[in-house]
Fold this protein.
Amino acid sequence: MSAPATVQGSPSRAESTTPTLRATARRWRFWLILAAVAVVGLLAVTVASGTGTGSRAPYSITNAAPDGSKALAEVLRQQGVDVVQADTLPEARAAVDAAPGATLAFADPVGYLTDEQLAEAAELADRVVLFLPGFNELRAFAPGVSAAGAPRDVDGVDAGCSLPAAERAGTIIGGGQSYRAAADGDARLCFRSSDDAYYVVSTETPSGTVTVLGAADVLTNEGITGVGNAALALGLLGEDDTLVWYVPTADDVVADGPADVASLTPDWVTPVLVLAVFTFVAAAIWRGRRLGALVVENLPVTVRSRETMEGRARLYAKAGAHTHALDSLRIGTITRLSSVLGLPRNASVDEVASSVAAVLPGWSPGDIRSVLVDATPSGEADLIALSDRLMLLENAVTSAVRP
Amino acid sequence: MAVTGRYVLLVALGAVPVVILGEAYRQAELTLVLWLLLTVVIGVLDLILAASPRRLVVERVLPHRVRLGETVASEVYLTNENSRTLRALVRDAWQPSAGAALTRQSLVVPPSERRMLRTALTPFRRGDRRTAGLTVRSFGPLGLWARQATLSSPGRVRVLPPFTSRKHLPSRLARLRELDGATSVQIRGQGTEFDSLREYVRGDDVRSIDWRATARQGDARAGHEQKLMVRTWRPERDRRIVIVIDTGRTQAARIEDEPRIDTSIEASLLLAALATRAGDRVDLIAWDRRIRGRVTGASGGELLSRMVDTMATIDPELLETDWSSVAGQVRDVTNQRALVVLLTTIDTPASSSGLLSVLPQLTQRHTVVVAAVSDPEVLRAVSRRGDRDETYRAASAERSLLDMERVTTAIRRLGGDVVTGSPAALPPMLADRYLALKAAGRL
């Protein structure tokens, strides 16, 4: 009965339900602007604070944090001292070679350098200033000096020695480490902290003059402004035109384990893996992009009409209601028998039983009554047997009445 | 926006230059970055050169109606209003039960030209089957990136009930003609009306001899042999038939994988087709708690057409049918005596109590036939007693039959008539019952 096909809808340019790029941008405008403002603000804050670049390591001259030494380096530069930063031993050697007679400022708080490297570093310059050296550094640079522990009293330590820089400084704020020199040496000891422990020890070694500086505040951005700290630092470090500031970094560590995977694989392996990730993402977009929205359809419920019957059967089986089940079967059989035998609808069981007995001479009346009414099933086996006999009886009657 | 498999391949091919240049010049990272940039640039270029999927004119050519099980062609004409050739993958978003053979097709439309997308629809559910629109994915000339838009272009096909029981119609119409005055053997009684006078032939009921007409005929043609005249009767015409289809929750249950309501619709269609040919007036009400469909005052071909159209979109509601208002609804349709056919479910006395309570009001004025689908599976289960489970199932089936029997008895006692049958048998059984009532002059 399909009616002739007709045009549905007007033949004008179809309206698109997918928003255009412009519409999407307009809808997300607020969040896009917010994101842009956030990014710009973050950049501005980073640039303004200057913390974006620069090291976080102590004694680094690019570290503007309280425990850095950027202030000292900047002041030295203003005084005309060429401060050269060196991060590795080869860099430090190159810097010293480029400016012979430079002062070397050295600190290795983390202990990156091996004994050999320390020995090598000790040979670099004629004038060396050590910041809070440890045992290894002292052994390499100034064998005659040893550590004397961290002193308690920190305020206003007087120079008390003939070192020019110390004399100019007069008083400094202590703290950090103190050192003592071997008794037979010719070391100059300044800023005494206790008995024979001093903050500044200057000693002559075969490779040059080594000054050990133990007062931590003298160098840091935080402490340099205290009393004579700045004067001492400038005096110690600003003697020569060039200051090579060498704080070892992780690059100085010499790998000595077995060769790692990176050094054995070709260069292109990582880029190819990255490319595989990009390929995967592209493939995901390719396969994941839907061709339009899903179609919604209300589906009807699916209920089988038999379900109540099945449910009741399971209920009978679960409860073992064999008497009840047999009753149902008997009522069904008796109803059908009475209609087969032409009895009225309201015929009683006894009438049906006697009619059946009349039709089936081979069955004893007691037997028929027992199947139809009397027998009580004691279990499921009985139920099945009686049900079979009911069927048998029904078939026998039907074939006897309607041959 | 979308990317294609070809683009994925292009990205993957970057492995070749990365490895070669990485080996030769140790520039693997740089090559990778450049390659990715290159693919994006080519992709964007491809996207810019793709025809806009929004600048299309969509025309749909679609039949309004289709009978369930039949196939119709859905045609969509796409006119390209771009200045570039459109290379596109097009999806027509038909609902799944519309049974579209193809939902996505690719096509090429040169600028200012029109192309047709054609697909066959074989709906497998009654009701309105819809499509929301077309999604067009327009590829660039290189087939790397694509633009995508969904165009609103709604389409609808109304899927009508199949009326498979119309195969029973010719035999029932033949029986109807036998009832008419054309046959001499005719029962005279209430509900029949005078048709014509004709000569007596052997086999006619002697009680139908009209002596007055016989005498008059003898007067007019004196000298001729006396001829006996008989009156013929035909069933009364212009009787009213009101079909009430229950659309409540019990009608959603499936028997032999057909919802009860579909069988009810089949039965009502066959009855209406037969009754309207017999000259009776048929009205239809689909009811649960409100009127869900109503056809009154139509006859002939228009009646069937309006009935299928009304019933196409009716699905069972998950509510209990409110039988108490049915008598009022029938009264709204007709005040005359009518044959009221209630197409519903008779399962248990409890669930049919609403129906039983309203029956006296209906039977007082009308002839009432209650037609219900019975499950042949239940009858089969009764005689299948192989094992324990089957025996219990047989007992349960006997119980269901007994319940149905009790409802049937109650309906008969209240003056109604009951027709039950399997989904395939119910429509012809209901038609036969109508014919029997008509022959007996009980309409």
Q: What stands out?
A: Chain B touches chain A through 104 residues (CB under 8 Å). Confidence is low (pLDDT under 50) at residues 182-186 of chain B. The longest strand of chain B covers residues 145-160. The two ends of chain B are 69 Å apart (CA to CA).
